[in-house]
Amino acid sequence: MNNTQQFIQENKQRFLDELIELLKIPSVSADPAYTQDVNDAAEMVAKYLREAGADNVEVCETEGFPVVYGEKIIDASKPTVLVYGHYDVQPADPLELWESGPYEPVIKKTEIHPDGAIFARGSADDKGQMFMHVKAFEALNKTNELPCNVKFMIEGEEEVGSPSLVNFVKNNKEKLKNDVILISDTSMISNEQPSISVGLRGLSYVEVEVKGANRDMHSGVYGGAVPNPINVLATMIGKLIDEKGHITIPGFYDTITELTEDERADLARIPFDVEEYKKSIGIADIQGEEGFSTIERASIRPTLDVNGIWGGYIGEGAKTVIPSHAYAKISMRLVPGQDPEVVTQQFADYFPTLAPSSVDVKVKPHHGGKPYILPTNHPGFIAAKKALAETFEKEALAERAGGSIPIVALFEEELGTKSVLMGFGLNSDVIHSPNEHYGLFNFYKGIETIPYFYHYFNEQ
Ligand code: BES
Ligand code: MN
Ligand code: MN
């Protein structure tokens, strides 16, 4: 590994310069205005993979944005690591809250990142983290120290629910055959305390519509005598969570795999300062489900959140009107044991029963995803832990991520292998928000750690 580590040290600046080129491309998968840019980002990833020395690099067409594939097979009898990541990004808006352009990467020092962090959309989620794998591979390959086979599958639709990757995986099982999948698209506890995510939450996502009268009405002439869909919707939403923080949907908790006392004790070992937490996001107090810690609420417990709500008049000044329609988007994060299709159906059955007979209610399901869990006795977890111990000189803790990467559960179903979530981001990187950034410390630590993962995984 020594030559590899030396190669990394000697090429640090170039690695960063190359990442900056990738970050300049606004590869927003959700917005058709950026179609060309998303395709350009795929081409650039392919170019970097080729330059790193990968074979059979291909920009594979799908029904949507392409999947970039590349591989290095050194010996068929050796294990194969499949690296997954995504080159698409979330929309940058609200633009006015960015201190520098989302696609004009700049390096600035912050309190958490005294060595500097790179500010740009996608810097942490996931271009910066995905790129660490390309560079770690380059270092191993160019120093002839690659200990096992490696395959890359970098997609461009993760931020819109990976619609095309499902068929790509189903149609390319042989090509994607592997012993373990390695992903850096999650966060770790802090730069002083490395961690490995051993779970991801699933997702059920719905849009609801409440319809009252056949037109908007004068709120004086009709007010008081007819349903106001916004008032009704607000009341219905209010009934979805009770005063103990429990979600009231019948059957919602029935199939959840509860944690053992040991597992809960492990989570309690994660350093956490509630005052710092409140201060960091500017809230006066925390809240959530009774009987669970903040870390548990944000990782091992399911949630229900309104993501957006609209209807009626929201222009300048006042308009006295009873709107005919009200809408909301609602997400539910799911935990192991819950099935998104079942939960979506439970919601669709229950939500309309909360409405008075004066309105019509519609529930429209969106994309969902299954939760995921990695046992800590899995060889991939053990290899990641040993790798992190090399570079941080500290024992990594297991934690469960609150976010979702829905395709990970499908990898297991279709390819039969587990994914190891060795992320190097921090929760303070503000992914999906203005001023997203990724620490240079984290970027380089990732590149230095990944070769050890290959080494230790190959040894088992
Ligand atoms: N990389 C994130 C998921 C993530 C972030 C997991 C931090 C754990 C910690 C991913 O790109 C993402 O944003 N996923 C979406 C789901 C998707 C269907 C849009 C999410 O979690 O909301
Ligand atoms: Mn991501
Ligand atoms: Mn994301």
Automatic annotation (TrEMBL):
InterPro entries associated with the record: Cyt/Met_Dipeptidase, Peptidase_M20, Peptidase_M20_dimer
Residue ranges occupied by any Peptidase M20 dimerisation domain in the UniProt entry: 199-356
Single GO MF descriptor: peptidase activity
Record has RNA-binding as a keyword: no
Alphabetically ordered keywords of this record: Hydrolase, Metal-binding, Protease
SUPFAM superfamilies found in the cross-reference section: Zn-dependent exopeptidases
Short name of one Pfam family: Peptidase_M20
GO biological process per UniProt: proteolysis
CDD domains reported for this sequence: M20_dipept_like (cd05680)
Protein name according to UniProt: Peptidase M20 dimerisation domain-containing protein
Source species of the chain: Empedobacter brevis NBRC 14943 = ATCC 43319
